[in-house]
Design goal:
This protein is α/β, with parallel strands linked by helices and 289 residues long. It contains eleven helices and ten strands. The strands form two sheets. The protein has an eight-stranded parallel sheet. A two-stranded antiparallel sheet has the order 1-2.
Length: 289
């Protein structure tokens, strides 16, 4: 199947279908990783305040723009950050957004996407955070707003809120062949929410899977490339992470082959609910939607 290079979100903005994630990227390496990623062709950077490397990631974008300002434009890069639990609630969220805007002010007056990082606070704080996000979106300081790790019940709470004005464009959750979240995928499709798949490489924990290795040999691609291609063909915006500069280009080199639908289904395990992320391990059912 043809995989688009971008998706158009409910906000009207376009999001590249593959990103480089900087979760756990060391602070002193983030600038170099982001800069190199942009050099090899990535145009989507996924960061978060809790990662402690947001400013360094933005510095990588700035470095890329500076080296060729005629061709390397800020508007060609889609930058995401997230508001974590300690900064949720209306006033705290506004302060958090201002910190991110301060970090990015040298290259732009806006952030492309801001997500509520987790629903693990309480209703008032979640909705207060959304109120702040809506205000900044209406002011043009955030182009698109969304959520991360939300199940259907958290989204239903948002849709039912009397202050609800701007629908979430994105829900970023862990998705891969061993964590299909079929109910949440169906719900999101019905609501027009684009799903972003974090940990599409399952943090390397499934690289020895027999089916994965069988397909790797069949297509002449690395296990990582098979998993990224699987995610793209499922219609997800895909966020592979690597701290290895050499693997950046390899992970992006996934648009020149296609998995058959039979092989997409073959690799998918609907009986598995394997969670690799630390965030969801406490309650594996919480974010199943």
């Amino acid at each position: 199947m043809s995989v688009p290079s971008t998706y158009t979100l409910k906000s009207g903005y376009k999001i590249p279908s593959i990103a480089i994630g900087v979760f756990k990227t060391p602070v002193d390496e983030a600038t170099a990783i982001v800069h190199k990623a942009l050099q090899v062709g990535y145009r989507h950077i996924d960061s978060a305040q809790i990662y402690k490397n947001e400013k360094q990631s933005i510095d990588g974008i700035a470095k890329w723009i500076k080296e060729n300002p005629e061709n390397n434009k800020r508007e060609d890069v889609f930058f995401t950050t997230k508001i974590f639990n300690d900064d949720q609630g209306y006033e705290l969220a506004k302060a958090a957004i201002e910190r991110s805007l301060e970090n990015i002010k040298d290259i732009s007056s806006y952030i492309d996407l801001v997500l509520i990082h987790s629903p693990r606070t309480d209703k008032d704080r979640r909705l207060g955070t959304w109120k702040a996000l809506q205000e900044y979106a209406k002011a043009g300081k955030i182009h698109t707003i969304g959520v991360s790790n939300f199940g259907a019940r958290h989204l239903d709470e948002l849709y039912a809120w009397e202050g609800f004005e701007i629908p979430p464009s994105i829900n970023q959750v862990e998705l891969h062949p061993w964590l299909l979240r079929e109910n949440l995928v169906k719900y999101s499709n019905e609501k027009g929410i684009v799903l972003e798949a974090y940990a599409p490489l399952v943090r390397g924990q499934k690289f020895d899977d027999p089916k994965l290795n069988e397909l790797s040999k069949k297509y002449g691609k690395t296990p990582a490339q098979i998993l990224i291609r699987w995610s793209l063909q499922k219609g997800f915006v895909t966020l592979p992470k690597t701290a290895n500069l050499d693997r950046l280009a390899s992970n992006l080199d996934v648009f020149n082959f296609e998995l058959s639908q039979e092989d997409v289904d073959y690799l998918s395990d609907p009986e598995s609910h394997y969670i690799s992320s630390l965030l969801s391990k406490d309650d594996p059912t919480e974010f199943e939607g």
